[in-house]
From TrEMBL:
It comes from the Eukaryota. Keywords: Hydrolase, Protease, Serine protease, Signal. One of its GO terms (biological process) is proteolysis. Residues 270-383 form the Peptidase S8/S53 domain. Belongs to the peptidase S8 family. GO terms for molecular function: serine-type endopeptidase activity. Residues 4-82 form the Inhibitor I9 domain. This is Uncharacterized protein. Residues 435-515 form the Subtilisin-like protease fibronectin type-III domain. It comes from Papaver atlanticum. SUPFAM superfamilies: Subtilisin-like.
């Protein structure tokens, strides 16, 4: 006996029970009886298409292949789940898995430390399959609670009435009138700019409890930008589609909708990367001369491990969005850089990430946009740009800063003469915060002219010459880079340069961006 899948394509049966009965009758024609067919069957496909899986002999499988209603019969095989394609999008396939440096230098083994409120050690995400032995210097242990393992039926193609309602999300006990919502597709409105997914899921639960068979969620704030798991079939409409639905509901005496069978549609390429509507934005309100955010990375609809409710089984997976999704991407790329450049400091790695980022679509080269409307962006939206792992391995120039630099920065940004927690004294002449040797340059307040200083370290092979090129097309600000050319004789050499900014006296005082 082997496990087979029998596929019969689309069906026109009125309900799932009819499909299952017909499957059993078909299988009984080769198995001997309905009872034997029921015993052999392991699963029925009765919604979007017709089919079943069952334990069959090769001879029985061949007989089913010869049946007119059967499209194909193939052996069932176990398949592994694919993760989100974000790493493919980032181009990490172009990064060599090993190089001569990492093979020879034992310090290239990288341990990633995570500060979090807790993790599920049993998750398959922590599996060490394919990794080498644990470094001897690793001192971590598993907690006592780790177990050591790494591991509504709906009729389709039917017409349903539509009712327009607003399901309150503040109280999960609120409900709809079942007499109105039963066997209906309910239209709900997201009345709040609260970007939490929970109130949107609650609406689905309320509709389901009221007997509704589906939901149309009108959401002008989020639209369909984020994937939302729900308990019933749900269509999310953004601001562009809302007016068409509202006009239909107003003009049609008996509004109806159809739930079609599931199908896969491959659309045109969506320009990317773009910024999500919820992404944190600048300017920096704490240290105004430091541009924030630093960088952007994949963080929307990422398939990730999620611990289940306490005491309820092993870890599960779900699509999620936010900093909790983008941060692990950046952390992993930082670890990749560290493995290729074991001697680099954290500020050097950060510099490599920022100076090699890009601020345009991968295809077409148009500027990065944001939100559902495709609004224009600035570095206050994306920082230095979208992370580029392969390029970050060879940035050419590095901006580094150390402990003394950070102490000077803290002294200037807090206007103190001493930093108590660090037992450090501040210099008599404060170092301007904009002179922190950061990979980006920001000047929050400028009256007349300001000169910003930076020092770069060359990482490469042999001598190299770097020419300055500034893209700052704004009549209110002029600049001078000194020197215009940096000439390095060998790797590891440091050279300083300055940028003098001069503001027009008639400038309106707005932010100006360049690169």
């Amino acid at each position: 006996m082997q496990h087979y899948v029998v596929y019969m394509g689309e069906h026109s049966y009125p309900d799932s029970d009819s499909v299952i009965l017909s499957n059993h009758e078909l299988l009984a024609s080769v198995a001997g009886s309905i009872g034997q067919a029921e015993e052999a069957t392991t699963h029925h496909y009765h919604k979007s298409f017709r089919g079943f899986s069952a334990f069959l002999t090769p001879k029985q499988a061949q007989k089913l292949r010869e049946t007119e209603s059967v499209i194909s019969v193939f052996e069932s095989k176990s398949a592994k789940l694919h993760t989100t394609h974000s790493w493919e999008f980032l181009g990490t396939d172009a990064i060599p898995q090993n190089n001569e440096q990492t093979k020879m230098d034992p310090k290239s083994d990288v341990i990633i430390g995570v500060f979090d409120t807790g993790v599920r050690p049993e998750s398959q995400s922590f599996s060490d399959d394919g990794l080498g032995p644990v470094p001897e210097r690793f001192k971590g242990t598993c907690g006592d609670q780790a177990d050591g393992s790494a591991i509504n039926s709906l009729q389709m193609d039917k017409y349903y009435g539509i009712i327009d309602a607003t399901a309150g999300a503040a109280d999960v006990n609120q409900s709809l009138d079942a007499n109105l919502s039963k066997e209906k597709i309910v239209v709900c409105t997201a009345e709040t700019k609260d970007f939490s997914m929970e109130n949107r899921r609650t609406k689905g639960a309320v509709v389901n409890n009221g007997g509704g068979v589906g939901m149309i969620l009108i959401d002008p704030f989020i639209g369909n930008e984020l994937g939302i798991e729900n308990v019933i079939p749900t269509t999310v409409l953004g601001s562009k589609e809302i007016e068409f639905l509202q006009e239909y509901l107003k003009t049609e005496k008996i509004p109806t909708a159809i739930i079609h069978p599931t199908e896969t549609v491959i659309s045109d390429t969506i320009p990317s990367p773009d910024m999500a509507f919820f992404s944190s934005k600048g300017p920096n309100i704490v240290a105004t001369d430091i541009i924030k955010p630093d960088i952007t990375a994949p963080g929307v609809n990422i398939l990730a491990s999620k611990p289940p409710p306490s005491g309820q089984g092993v870890a599960i997976y779900k699509f999620d969005s936010g900093t909790s999704m983008s941060c692990p991407h950046v952390s992993a790329v930082a670890a990749i850089i560290k493995s290729h450049h074991p001697s680099w400091s954290s500020s050097a790695i950060k510099s490599a990430l920022m100076t090699t980022a890009y601020a345009m679509h991968k295809i077409g080269g148009e500027p990065i946009l944001k939100n559902m409307k495709g609004s224009s962006t600035t570095p206050f939206d994306y920082g230095s740009g979208h992370i580029n792992p392969a390029a970050a391995l060879d940035p050419g120039l590095i901006y580094e800063y150390g402990t003394d630099d950070m102490i000077n920065f803290l002294c200037s940004s807090t206007n103190q003469t001493k930093i108590p927690l660090l037992e450090a004294n501040c210099p008599d002449t404060p170092v301007p915060t904009y002179d922190l040797n950061y990979p980006s340059i920001g000047v929050a307040t400028m009256d007349g002219s300001i000169t910003v200083n930076r020092t770069v370290t060359y990482y490469g092979e042999g001598p190299a010459i770097f020419d300055s090129e500034v893209d700052l097309d704004n009549p209110n600000v002029k600049f001078i880079v000194t020197p215009k050319q940096l000439e390095f004789k060998e790797a590891g050499e440091n050279i300083s340069f300055s940028v003098k900014f001069m503001a027009d006296s008639t400038s309106p005082g707005s932010w100006v961006f360049g690169s």
